[in-house]
Amino acid sequence: MPRNAPLPVDPIAEAKRQWVAHGWQDAAAGMTLVTSIMRAHQLLLSRIDATLRPFGLSFARYEMLRLLGFTRTGRMPMASAIARLQVHPTSVTNTVERLTRDGLVEREPHPVDGRAAMLVLTDAGRDLVERATAALNTNVFDSPGLPEQDTAEVVRLIARLRKGAGDFTDPRPLPDPL
Which PROSITE patterns has this protein been placed in (predicted)? Predict the structure, then answer.
C-alpha cells in the first residue's frame, strides 16, 4: 500500500540487517530478494488496480480479455487459456464466469472435443479491453518506475529466475517454411 511520505529507513534493508544479526546471513540475500520482489509486486499492482477500476476489471479479468483479444478470431480453447495464464484452472473458470455474466466473453462448445469449451470475446469485451489497454499503457506500462535499460535488466534477471524454476524452456527453432 502506498504511503503519503517515504519511510525514514528502508524496511527491507532493516530486515536484512536483522537477519544477519540473528545469524541467518546465508539466507539474508534470498530473503531480501523475495521481499523486494513482493513489495515491487504490491506497488505495481496498486497502480494497475487503480487504472483498471474505472473499467470494472481486475487484472485477472483484464489478462483473460487481452489474451483473447490477441488471437486472430477472438477465440481460444479454455485449456489453452489456462496454460498461457499460468494460474489454477479454478481461477480461470471463475474469471470466465464473471466475464460471461458481464457479456464480455461467451462460452461455446469446442468444435472437435465435446468435453472442452471455447472462449469467445464479444464485441463489448473487445471494446473494453482495448480501452483498458490504452489506459494501462499510459498510466503504468509506459513508465513502470525505472529507466528503460533498468527495466530490461530486471526483466532479464526475473526471466532467469522463472526459467530456473521451470516456468518455461527456450523455444525450439521453428522449421524453415516449405
Answer: HTH_MARR_2
